[in-house]
Prior knowledge:
The protein is mostly helical. It has one domain. The chain contains 5 helices and no strands. The chain has helices at 16-23, 26-39, 69-77, 92-100, 102-111. Helix 1 packs antiparallel against helix 2 and helix 4 (92-100) packs across helix 5. It is globular, with a radius of gyration of 14 Å. It starts with 15 loop residues before the first helix and ends with a helix. The model has no long low-confidence stretch (mean pLDDT 91).
Amino acid sequence: MNLLISCCGLNCETCDARIATVEDSDELRAATAEKWQKMFNAPALDPETINCLGCRTEGVKFAHCYDCQIRKCVAAKGYNTCGDCELVENCEIVAHVHKFSPEALQNLKGLHN
């Protein structure tokens, strides 16, 4: 199973946070913080917090991942990803991710084909 598909279905291989971490690029961390702040209408992000190797891999995680309700739900149910859950297409916990990134749901479905 591809561990670089996150619990919610996002593809960590193409994630700017993971790329910035792997390449140790402060420039990409800063650009990602600015992009995510605008994208999610969030308070300013500290670029130094943009470090992640993926929520299902060993290693550093983005600070949000430790409190992620999606990740907690997957762990509590003993699943690998939301794709293991029969409620994935109607789940309120992961719906905001799939609304923002429909390919995440397709990634989860692809794991089970």
